[in-house]
From TrEMBL, chain A:
Its main location: nucleus. Belongs to the WD repeat TRM82 family. Required for the formation of N(7)-methylguanine at position 46 (m7G46) in tRNA. In the complex, it is required to stabilize and induce conformational changes of the catalytic subunit. This is Transfer RNA methyltransferase 82. Pathway: tRNA modification; N(7)-methylguanine-tRNA biosynthesis. PANTHER family: TRNA (GUANINE-N(7)-)-METHYLTRANSFERASE NON-CATALYTIC SUBUNIT WDR4, WD40 REPEAT PROTEIN 4. It is found in: Nucleus. GO terms for cellular component: cytosol; nucleus; tRNA methyltransferase complex. It comes from Patellaria atrata CBS 101060.
From TrEMBL, chain B:
Its EC number is 2.1.1.33. GO terms for molecular function: tRNA (guanine(46)-N7)-methyltransferase activity; tRNA binding. It is found in: Nucleus. The active site is at D176. Belongs to the class I-like SAM-binding methyltransferase superfamily. TrmB family. Residues 1-21 are annotated as: Disordered. It catalyses: guanosine(46) in tRNA + S-adenosyl-L-methionine = N(7)-methylguanosine(46) in tRNA + S-adenosyl-L-homocysteine. It is an enzyme of class 2 (transferase). Residues 10-21 have a biased composition (Basic and acidic residues). Forms a complex with TRM82. It comes from Patellaria atrata CBS 101060. PROSITE patterns: SAM_MT_TRMB (PS51625). It comes from the Eukaryota. This is tRNA (guanine-N(7)-)-methyltransferase.
Length: 486, 278
């Protein structure tokens, strides 16, 4: 039997107008929908996409004046719509980039003053995007994918280019493959295995080029590639005081323990070096200060790097602090999960964020299926024994956004932690905290009230269990021995 | 491919007896080390590789180049306990197969360390056994002390073994062609992988390629020429390079092609110095 739970918010971003902190808009994706939540006023929510029939009906039914769309609607996402996994707002807050999983698409929206979204383009990538970043000038999207390639795409496709691409059939690899000319690939004199000979014979039979894939129908540039799943991507600019010049870098992390430092465009083919020291996959990298890189993944430590010189500055053990919280896993229906001994407890870092506000300056850390938000003073990153503090949560954190001095956390209420089902129903899927200069934390009542109201109004429900692998994919990056060799 | 039970038994017996025998003067027999031709470079093989070049212990591979450290460092870090070599590997044969090229090059470059990297376990073991035997057979001259072979997936882990700008020569001899377009990402040459070769290479270092598959040759030329870190070396320069000659005649694949009267396509590429930052 399928259980319908309140659908969690898989990802968040926030618009904070400069000098006008009182006009914040939170973007939160739940399943295939994106909600724009005004953080200063209750009941001021917009939703994308608007034009589905359900929404129209609901709007007609609730057509009280000024009732915003999205009010009191029970929406279960139409089957087959792609789930949104990542949201990135442009630095000028005028565009929102959304990545969806099933169709591997990058959608770009223009964002109105009020936060409503208007889709400008939809570009489907050859492989599922797994990391995304925007250049400082907001001109270019950098997109890393499951197969390790990083592409640059213009944020706004040049005029004349189609704004929506049809789903690619089976675009298997980078563009280069399309250049394949089908002259038989080897002569009959070539010595090869039976299998190759067969492939060759088949090629000879097919006179016409075999269409293996559609070329990407939009401007894009392949910048670099790992032969491994790309897990995170960060762009950074350093200014060189001596030369008065600026240097752009691309930092990329992968499932094979690598963190790569490459030069920025137009020299992205030059690898400056690697930060090597992880023993398991790297899932997240974060720059709390331009010259300091923190990385986390399947190891029970966070690594702190002087990434410019590729030096490992510190390893911060997080096993103790994380181990205080029992893993909060979705029941499989096959009885309770076995209780693991603490020493075999595996950690999978699912998020790292800088909380750069004033004296509470912290690094925020989440781990997969651990119902807590950890924080660590940025000033302590290089000290021998930094204290990892925790904020207990009443569910698993899925994403975090730092909105001025508030931290907003998306909580998956469909995985019951210690609470009963009924209690879970009342827990808000969006909660906010502040970290104070003495490193203690507080809930922000005013903001939480708005988030609580928004949570009540946004009544998305669905079979969250079927989304499990998409929402909780980090631990799956761990290698399990692999194929045998003989 | 797993052999017949008794075939496999024979092979295991052979290999244990070989590794236990006191006088390993005999060269290993290839027939006991054959292995399915293709290994998937994308899958998680059970591989051992160092966390970083700093943590790689080369001493078992090049024992006679290992420095025995008299003034023991008292720092008890993992890295400072690793023995050092008097020099670094500078010549790498990527996908070395049964190692024909390595055994031909080693006596020609006695002052350099050569390393073969091979993804298939049995084939790697064959080369390792052959190195042992060759070293013993040549104990008077000390030949073959400068050559070693290890198992690695070079498409993923080159930067774990080599520092930036460490290598002066890389050989890519008769790489698996991966004919089907769908499999082209498995090719050992691509615009993105070429950046990794450039990373581990010294400026002015050379990549040597040879294949009997014209299409693959064109592919390699196209991708290296398109890469801003490489330029193709002229035919005249190629012709006088002793490595080109050896690569044509001494690789196992090269010999097979010779026997069958096939063509061999050679292309070599020099690594440029990195341009200044923009
Ligand atoms: C056709 S053989 C050529 C062997 C040898 N170079 C010669 O010319 O005789 C290609 C070799 O490359 C190896 N190989 C393929 N992919 C590899 C990878 N990613 N890392 C290391 N070796 C690889 C294969 O196992 C195979 O032994």
């Amino acid at each position: 039997m399928t259980v319908y739970d309140r659908f969690p918010f898989s990802c968040l971003d926030c618009s904070i107008p400069e000098g006008n902190e009182n006009h914040r808009i939170l973007f939160a994706a739940s399943g295939p929908k994106i909600f724009s939540i005004n953080l200063e006023k209750k009941s001021n929510i917009q939703v994308w996409p608007q034009a589905d029939n359900q929404a129209k009906r609901a709007d007609q039914e609730n057509d009280d004046h000024g009732e915003p769309p999205g009010k009191k609607r029970k929406l279960s996402p139409p089957p087959g719509s792609p789930n949104i996994l990542k949201l990135t707002l442009s630095h000028n807050r005028k565009h929102l980039v959304a990545v969806s999983s099933e169709d591997k698409c990058i959608r770009v929206f223009s964002v109105s003053e009020q936060g409503s979204l208007d889709q400008l383009s939809q570009r489907c990538m050859p492989k599922r995007p797994s990391a995304i970043a925007l250049t400082w000038d907001d001109d270019t999207i950098f997109c890393g994918d499951k197969f390790g390639d990083v592409y640059a795409l213009p944020l706004l496709p040049p005029s004349g280019e189609p704004i929506g691409t049809p789903l690619p059939d089976d675009m298997e690899a980078s563009q280069e493959e399309q250049k394949e000319l089908f002259i038989p690939s080897a002569t009959n004199l070539t010595v090869h295995t039976a299998r190759n000979r067969r492939a060759l014979e088949n090629q000879a039979k097919i006179k016409k080029p075999v269409k293996t894939k559609e070329p990407l129908k939009f401007s894009h540039q392949l910048l670099l590639g790992h032969v491994s799943m790309l897990t995170d991507l960060t762009l950074v600019t350093l200014s060189d005081e001596n030369m008065g010049s600026k240097r752009n870098y691309i930092l990329t992390a992968d499932r094979d323990e690598h963190i790569r430092v490459s030069r920025g465009v137009p020299q992205a083919h030059i690898i400056e070096g690697f930060c090597l020291g992880h023993k398991e996959f790297v899932s997240r990298i974060c720059l709390p200060r331009p010259e300091i890189l923190v990385s986390g993944g399947g190891d029970d430590f966070l690594a702190v790097w002087d990434w410019v010189n590729r030096g490992l500055k510190n390893k911060i053990n997080i096993h103790g602090a994380v181990g205080e919280f029992p893993k909060n896993v979705r029941p499989t229906g096959k009885g309770d999960p076995p209780v693991r001994e603490p020493e075999e407890r595996k950690i999978a870092v699912s998020g790292l964020w800088a909380y750069p506000q004033g004296p509470g300056e912290s690094l925020l850390v989440t781990c997969e299926e651990v119902p807590a938000l950890f924080h660590l003073a940025i000033a302590d990153l290089e000290s021998p024994d930094p204290v990892l503090r925790s904020i207990p949560l009443n569910g698993n954190p899925l994403d975090v956004v730092v909105a001025g001095n508030s931290v907003i956390v998306s909580i998956d209420t469909s995985v019951k932690s210690s609470c009963t089902g009924e209690e879970m129903e009342r827990i808000s899927r969006l909660q906010s905290f502040v970290i104070k200069s003495d490193k203690s934390w507080n809930r922000i009542d005013e903001l939480n009230e708005i988030l609580y109201e928004a949570d009540k109004e946004i009544n998305t429900v669905g079979d969250v269990g079927s989304m499990h692998d998409i929402l909780y994919g980090i631990e799956n990056l761990r290698k399990r021995g692999g194929e045998s060799d003989t | 491919m797993p052999g017949q039970p008794n075939k496999r038994q024979k092979r295991d017996d052979y290999r244990t007896s070989l590794s236990q025998s006191e006088h390993r003067i005999q060269l290993p027999k290839k027939k006991f080390y054959r292995q399915r031709a293709h290994a998937n470079p994308f899958s998680d093989h059970v591989l051992t590789y160092p966390e970083s070049p700093d943590t790689m212990d080369w001493s078992p591979y090049y024992p006679s180049f290992t420095i025995t450290n008299e003034n023991e460092s008292h720092e008890d870090t993992e890295i400072s306990n690793i023995p050092h070599l008097s020099k670094r590997v500078e010549i790498a044969d990527i996908g070395c197969g049964y190692g024909g090229l390595l055994f031909a090059l080693a006596p020609r470059f006695p002052d350099q360390l050569l390393l073969g990297l091979e993804i298939r376990t049995s084939v790697t073991e064959f080369v390792q056994e052959k190195i042992k035997a060759m070293r013993q057979q040549n104990s008077e001259t000390g030949l073959y002390q400068n050559v070693a072979c290890l198992r690695a997936n070079t498409m993923k882990f080159l930067p774990n073994f080599f520092y930036k700008a460490q290598l002066s020569k890389i050989f890519l001899c008769f790489p698996d062609p991966h004919f089907k377009a769908r499999k082209h990402k498995a090719r050992i040459v691509s615009s993105t992988l070429n950046s990794e070769y450039a990373y581990v290479m010294k400026p002015a270092g050379v990549i040597y390629t040879i294949t009997d598959v014209e299409d693959l040759h064109n592919w390699m030329v196209e991708h290296f020429e398109a890469h801003p870190s490489f330029e193709r070396i002229s035919k005249t320069e190629e012709d006088v390079d002793v490595c080109v000659k050896i690569m044509k005649s001494e690789t196992e694949e090269g010999k097979k092609v010779e026997r069958n009267g096939g063509h061999k396509f050679v292309a070599c590429f020099r690594r440029f110095e990195d341009p200044p930052w923009p």
